[in-house]
Design goal:
The complex is a heterotrimer of chains A (about 230), B (about 170) and C (about 250).
Chain A: E1 6-8, H1 9-34, H2 59-64, H3 70-91, H4 107-129, H5 159-180, H6 182-188, H7 190-216
Chain B: H1 2-8, H2 12-38, E1 50-54, E2 68-70, H3 74-77, E3 79-83, E4 87-92, E5 103-105, E6 110-112, E7 119-121, E8 126-128, E9 137-142, E10 148-156, E11 168-169
Antiparallel strand pairs in B: 1-10, 2-3, 3-4, 4-9, 4-11, 5-6, 6-7, 7-8, 9-10
Chain C: H1 2-12, H2 14-19, H3 28-36, E1 47-49, H4 55-58, H5 61-80, H6 87-99, H7 104-131, H8 140-162, H9 167-181, H10 201-206, H11 213-244
Classes of the chains: A mainly alpha (about 230), B alpha+beta (about 170), C mainly alpha (about 250).
């Protein structure tokens, strides 16, 4: 690496950190003076709030409860997200773009990461700002006084069809890059390839399921005696 | 000594090593186990699980509806007592989706959950929203004095609704 | 003249010299010593590459997250003086803090808003680290620690959410913890459930079948002791490894 121009931490960086800390303190104090932290009535186990919303950073997961059973939306999805985040450095072996902003050298990685990040934010936005009583969709200018009723005729795929379509989705997804871009598979190796493709396919399964639910009213893709997906 | 080594294939050093690491691991495991057990208290200071709701003939359907829902115990016990034509049962006032408390709308004759909009008929059977199954019911029995006792420690899910302890015949 | 004498007297004293090891005349040596002889500042190297000074590159999100943590610690310790984690008292204490304790409400507001801001900045920090590819070798493990810190921050905020013991807190945590019931195998309503509601993982976390006194105390202890301790330990490793794994991110 070529030695570039260097800055002394004292006083240059320390000064900037000091200024940042002061600016943030001012922002926080002004914010704290202008807006009070919410405090509703005392907790009452027999009277549900309507709607009951999780803390904003988990509202995205709560929003997914519309489309998935609680064991998927509340347990499997966060667990898979954490695991996938942790393995990122071990599955992305591409040495390009280490320590610099570059899009052209790491298109696949950046597109997928931004997709997941934006999905997380959009779900939070919908859950926090657009959901009213009974978790119905209320646009910001609509009054929550107006009662919206649930009118849904949901149906589920046959177990056989569901299983086959899941196999097709994951099977084809797994094969796709192997057929189109042979060197991608070779570069990754078997285990790494499986983990990469599985996590990507799982991530895109979420919007696919949301689409199926919203457009075709499908409640479950796969129904089994033990669990439903 | 050397013959011993050849017989077992384990040298004294590695045997000690195994014993040493082994006992450390066992101690560690026991410690973790007891900490986990520590987190489960033996006694719970929650409300007693049984309570009286009165005599069976105190519950009446008023004729116009097939179900009459009594809300008297909702606030205290999270229980609705429902009188059907010839049955009384106790419904748990807790949505089977994520545990919010539904509300009873007498004019419409349905329970609605405020959290995710699940709806249940007067008998607790779900017909709209994300709730996966009907509202659960509690065990009922007739006490010595002839009053109905609700036991909240025994829960019946919809597959068990026809069990004799899940309702009282009138 | 007199002021200067007094100043010299102080800076020449043994006490002063035992604390501050060097003078502050602006020399190259002192600039180096300032970092090297200070336990807090020597988190930093003496020199950093110019690009690391640019907000455009670092977004300063990691540093702000750390600053927010410090704000949380200070305001949190102060709030603890008036807070009793017992269902009978807790809501009264909240009202007391809000209406009677001098500056109580501003402290609570600071604690709340800084927590929200911290979650925003930690997520943006992760985005920045990803976009600059700063998880690539040799920094793989520090990314993993960063993910652990992210989860710890979420849990810190989540446990704190119950503590006001109002309707907002109670029902948010009810919705959140009820999802644990649906955990496969270890939750009593999930697929392949092995346990009942008196011994599943939700019971272990809440110390009961409902959110009550035990749950409040557990969330409180996690919020003020266990999770901050974990966060501090992982933060120490995180910061230390930035320097050990090649310094601030840059093309290697």
């Amino acid at each position: 690496m070529t030695e570039k121009k260097k800055h002394l931490v004292w006083p240059d960086l320390a000064f900037m950190e000091f200024l940042t800390a002061i600016a943030l303190t001012i922002i926080l104090i002004v914010w704290g003076l202008l807006a009070n932290a919410p405090l509703l009535e005392i907790a009452s186990p027999t009277r549900s709030e309507n709607p009951s919303k999780a803390p904003w950073y988990f509202v995205g997961l709560q929003e997914l409860l519309v489309y998935f059973d609680p064991w998927i939306a509340g347990v499997m999805i966060p667990a898979i997200i954490i695991l996938c985040l942790m393995v990122i450095p071990y599955i992305d072996r591409d040495p390009h773009g280490s320590g610099e902003y570059t899009f052209s050298l790491r298109k696949l990685a950046i597109i997928n990461f931004i997709f997941g990040f934006l999905m997380w934010l959009i779900l939070i936005f919908i859950g926090y700002f657009l959901r009213g009583p009974n978790w119905q969709l209320y646009l910001p200018w609509e009054s929550w006084e107006k009662v919206k009723e649930l009118e849904e005729n949901l149906w589920s795929l046959n177990p056989e069809i569901g299983l086959i379509s899941l196999i097709i989705y994951f099977g084809l997804g797994m094969m796709m890059p192997k057929l189109i871009k042979k060197d991608f598979y070779k570069k990754c190796g078997f285990v790494r390839y499986v983990i990469i493709m599985l996590s990507i396919l799982l991530m895109y399964f979420v919007p696919v399921k949301i689409f199926l639910r919203l457009v075709f009213n499908i409640k479950y893709v796969l129904v089994t005696p033990w669990f439903n997906i | 000594m050397t013959t011993d080594i050849n017989k077992t294939g384990i040298s004294r050093r590695s045997l000690l090593q195994i014993a040493g690491w082994g006992s450390l691991l066992v101690t560690f495991g026991i410690t973790i186990g007891s900490i986990l057990r520590f987190l489960y208290p033996r006694v719970l200071f929650e409300k007693p699980s049984t309570f009286n709701i009165g005599f069976p003939d105190e519950f009446k359907t008023d004729g116009s509806t097939s179900h009459r829902v009594y809300e008297n115990w909702k606030e205290e016990q999270s229980v609705w007592v429902v009188k059907e034509r010839n049955r009384i049962y106790a419904i748990h006032a807790k949505c089977t989706h994520l545990g919010c408390t539904p509300n009873w709308f007498a004019e419409e004759g349905i329970f609605k959950c405020p959290c995710h909009g699940s709806q249940f008929r007067g008998n607790g059977v779900n017909f709209a929203g994300p709730a996966p199954r009907p509202l659960d019911r509690f065990k009922l029995s007739i006490g010595k004095d002839g009053m109905i006792i609700v036991d909240k420690s025994r829960v019946y899910t919809f597959k068990e609704f026809e069990k004799p302890e899940a309702y009282v015949e009138v | 003249m007199k002021g200067k004498n007094l100043r010299n007297k102080i800076t020449d004293s043994q006490i002063y010299k035992s604390v501050f090891r060097h003078t502050y005349t602006d020399t190259k040596e002192n600039r180096t010593l300032q970092i090297k002889s200070n336990v807090f500042l020597h988190l930093h190297p003496v020199k950093i590459p110019s690009h690391a000074m640019k907000i455009r590159f670092t977004w300063c999100m990691g540093g702000i997250t750390f600053f927010m943590f410090l704000v949380e610690v200070i305001t949190g310790i102060l709030l603890m003086f008036y807070y009793r984690p017992v269902p009978e008292y807790v809501y009264l204490d909240m009202k007391y803090l809000e209406f009677d304790v001098p500056f109580g409400i501003i402290l609570r507001n600071l604690h709340r808003w800084a927590a929200h801001l911290m979650l925003v900045t930690i997520m943006l920090h992760m985005l920045r680290v990803f976009l600059t590819g700063s998880y690539k070798p040799p920094r793989e493990f520090n990314w993993v620690i960063g993910v652990v810190l992210l989860v710890t921050t979420f849990l810190l905020s989540f446990t704190g959410y119950l503590l006001p013991w109002d309707q907002l807190a109670y029902w948010a945590i009810t919705v959140g913890t009820n999802m644990i019931r649906a955990a496969p195998v270890i939750g009593h309503e999930g697929p392949f459930a092995l346990l009942n509601k008196y011994n599943d993982v939700r019971f272990m976390i809440l110390g009961g079948t409902e959110i009550g006194a035990n749950a409040l105390l557990r969330f409180y202890v996690l919020h003020i002791m266990a999770l901050p301790a974990a966060a501090i330990i992982f933060m120490a490793v995180h910061f230390w490894r930035i320097r050990k794994d090649g310094g601030i991110s840059r093309p290697l």
